[in-house]
Amino acid sequence: MRGPDNYNARMCPSRVGLEALTKRSKGRQRALIQVLQDIQDRFHWLPPESLEHVAEALGVPLVQVYGVATFYKSFSLSPRGRHICTVCLGTACHVRGGGAVLDEFERRLGIAAGQTTPDGGYTLERVNCLGACALAPLAVVDGRYHGQMTEAKVQSVLAGAKKKDEVP
Amino acid sequence: MTSYRAHLLVCAGTGCVSCGAFEVRRALEDEVRRRGLEREVLVVATGCNGFCERGPILLVQPDGVFYQRLKTTDIPRLVEEHLVKGRPVTSLMYVPPQGREPVPRMKDIEFFKHQRLIVLSNRGRIDPEKIDDYIAYEGYAAAAKALGEMTPEAIIAEITAAGLRGRGGAGFPTGRKWEAARRAPGEPRYVVCNGDEGDPGAFMDRSVLEADPHAVIEGMIIGARAIGAARGFFYIRHEYPLALARVGIALEQARRYGLLGRNILDTGFDFDLEVVRGAGAFVSGEETALLASIEGGRAYPRQRPPYPAERGLWGKPTVINNVETWANVPHIVRRGADWFSGLGTATSKGTKIFSLVGKIANTGLVEVPMGITLREIVYGIGGGIPGGRKFKAIQIGGPSGGCIPKSKLDLAVDYESLKAAGSMMGSGGMIVLDEDTCMVDIALYFLRFAEEESCGKCSPCRVGTGEMARILAKITAGDGTAADLARLESLAATVKQGSLCGLGQTSPNPILTTLRYFRDEYEAHVFDKRCPALVCKALVAFAIDPETCVGCLLCKKACPARAISGELKQVHTIDQEICIKCGICLSVCPSKVRAVRKTTPAVAGVAGSPAASARTAPSAKSGEGR
User: Are B404 and B394 a contacting pair, CB within 8 Å?
Assistant: First the structure.
């Protein structure tokens, strides 16, 4: 779907892009989380230069920006993959075998939860509950919910994601 | 207003949407248009109906007919039969697990029959994105009454008399909290809605925000009037995109209708609300941590007192209540304290929403009067355990709660009774556990959760949760000793006493309740190196029964470790040295064959011959009964 050039542009913010995201919040310390969320939504991670920019624009010490960026789970300080695989390990998913589903994702992708494959293709995440417990065990791949997952279904779910790469 | 002869109410809660509710709605709209029925039949997308297990769900009104597990391909037939010919389609109706006959009407279905809807009364009947729908069911009448006819003191007196207590888990009397904030010196004051529902297995707040956002807004307007606040905040976790979107729409509509902003309803009262999106930290659900997060910092809890009612947001008096608490307020103001306090038990009034999940036939969201027994919830509403498995325990209150065993199924649920049983109301997640659930593993699950989510500010929680998790992991690995059990108990007491906030103080509850009610399971792990539920990997082994194996090659092909050998139509065997115990062989073995066995204790090197004392487990699939 996206070529490599396009992909880099999407991942690395320009000065101008950052200005646009912070200009409404100049000097407003309270807006720190919100601004970081906007950057995360846009680039899918928080590049180091963006944190420096935010510190300057909002008038907040860089250490505090890092503190917030590392405290909350929705922020990522490393680039994320083109495909995001999220395995729910809420209690309902856990008792219905979510752990084995995660193990199988880890095995197939060759990475541990929280990591991204070296080619930047996939990021594997574990969440503590998406609140869709009736679908347990649940995996979400690129925003699509796959309910009643089993270890055996992981392969086909991943194949579905891979297929999207091949579409020009 | 146009009137329609039929309303098609499609559930558009997260559960149904994930199974294709929007596609079903589109198909319904297309089909209705294709048949020229658009002036007679209206398609409405509603909030969560609660019966998530059966999604996508459609309710046809005024007939009250309930359709479930719909696919887009069912729609042409459904519209033709039910709406054109007037013949409800029995094959798309709900069939109870123990019965054969479909139940056509929603009100006759066991899952709905025993519920008492107050907070969720609008679920499945209004379009949450339309303020007019809410107003049509007496919406904002309570705000008009509170602002126009009642003094702030009278509002607080009404809430106090109703006996409303915080639905976020701790159960603090709401009226007293408001009173304290009203009396506390300092301006401006704030009201906050805690929508950071982080307990795994709980999704009632998400559902209320998605199904009836105006009820929460109305409650907050009334609360703001009572304490004299001009501003308020919704704090909603980012994992709930649909709830965030619907609250945003509702706020905009309320502003347009003059229900938020300056001079509300011409009463001279000014109030507005802002949405803050959580950034992903379980501890933000703790009230002081949540306030720190709204202020733009890390969600660190702080010492209480002073309570937020005295010194909250930016040091000013702040009332922070949970979503469900706020949503109760308009009902109390409109219908009176006497009506509300007539429901429930001596100390716990009204209803409570629970999310009923785990090993239960009818997964979903239920609203029941306080004082209902666990048995009624699990067997009456929940339909019991699927797949013929046996009930073992019910975990209530998330990581702060505990596991309640079978012997206490007749417990009448309220704040006090749950606490006495070692658990707590929490936000209302109820996870049903069956005989295939290992209680040591469950305790480990919650302690790992607590360790991961501990913010790290105080050492009893930061170090203690990790240490308890380490001991539990040791036990599940088969390396536990009697001394470990004693150490767990003493550590639990220390962490309970020494932690700064609720997260740490309640984190030992999963251990304490499982040790209290299921000590034999801990002992089986420690002394016999057995996991009776066949869950803990180090204590189980997989083997193929040579008597039943048909040699179909399915497991051999699926095995990621290539631990299975055998040719077509010959008995397969698992090499225990190579086996990684992932369980794939068990899940792919055809249900007619079921040759793969799970055994405990793990007996290395005896592939193909399960230990004599071991019991067999059915495949994961049939165990779920889906």
Answer: yes
Residue of B577, B541, B548, B547 lying closest to B562 (CA atoms): B577
The interface predicted TM-score (ipTM) is: 0.88
CA closest to B363 among chain A residues: A134
Residue A96 Cα, gap to closest chain B Cα (Å): 7
| Calpha distance A41→B390 (Å, rounded) | 45
Minimal C-alpha gap between A124 and chain B (Å) = 16
Question: Residue B226 and residue B184: Cα distance in Å, rounded?
Answer: 13
Query: Which residues contact residue B232 at a Cβ distance below 8 angstroms, ignoring those fewer than 6 apart?
Result: B190, B191, B192, B193, B220, B223, B224, B271, B272, B273, B274
Give the model confidence (pLDDT) of B547-571 as tens digits.
999 999 999 999 989 999 999 999 9
Indicate the residue of A75, A100, A134 with minimum beta-carbon distance to B15.
Answer: A134
Q: Which domains does chain A have, with CATH numbers?
A: 4-71 (1.10.10), 83-166 (3.40.30.10)
Asked whether the beta carbons of B516 and B430 are under 8 A apart, the reply is: no
User: In chain B, what percentage of residues exceed pLDDT 70?
Assistant: 96
Which structure tokens are listed for B170? 């701790």
Contacts of A90 in chain B (CB under 8 A): 200-201
B323 φ, ψ (degrees, to nearest 5): -50, -50
**Which residues are CB-contacts of B348 (< 8 A; sequence separation ≥ 6)?**
B163, B165, B171, B370, B371, B414, B415, B416
- Specify whether the CB–CB gap between A95 and B358 falls below 8 A: yes
A91: nearest CB among B240, B294, B358: B358
DSSP codes joined into one string, B317-373: -EEEEEHHHHHHHHHHHHH-HHHHHTSB-SSSBSEEEEEEEES-SS-EEEEEETT-B
> Is A131 in contact with B364 (Cβ distance < 8 A)?
no
Span B563-606, pLDDT tens digits: 999 999 999 999 999 999 988 899 899 999 999 999 999 864 43
Residue B322: strand pairing partners: B194
Beta bridge partners of B264: B269
Domains, chain B, in order of start with CATH, read: 6-108 (3.40.30.10), 131-341 (3.40.50.11540), 351-427 (3.10.20.600), 439-527 (1.20.1440.230), 540-626 (3.30.70.20)
- Give per-residue pLDDT as tens, B272-301: 999 999 999 999 999 999 999 999 999 999
Strand duo B41-46 + B6-11: pairing? parallel
Specify the DSSP class assigned to residue B307: P
Q: Residue A165's pLDDT band (boundaries 50, 70, 90)? A: confident
B477, B483, B486, B489: CA torsion to nearest 10: -40
Model confidence pLDDT, tens digit, residues B309-328: 999 999 999 999 999 999 99
| Nearest residue in chain B measured CA to CA from A28 | B296
Give the ranges where B477-573 is alpha helix by DSSP (H): 482-498, 502-506, 509-517, 519-527, 554-558
- The CA-CA-CA angle for residues B134, B138, B142, to 5°, reads 110
Chain B residues closer than 8 Å to A104 by CB: 560, 582, 584
CB count in 10 Å sphere of residue B557: 10
Please state the rounded mean pLDDT for residues B533-540: 95
Provide, as residue numbers in chain B, all residues whose Cβ is less than 8 Å from the Cβ of A72. Answer: 279-281, 298-299
Question: Closest-CA residue in chain B for A68?
Answer: B298
Handedness of CA B479, B483, B489, B492 (dihedral sign): negative
Distances from the Cα of B488 to the Cαs of A144, B30, B443, B526, in angstroms?
Answer: 41, 61, 11, 13
The H or E element spanning position B433 is strand B429-434
Q: Are B6 and B63 in contact (CB under 8 A)?
A: yes
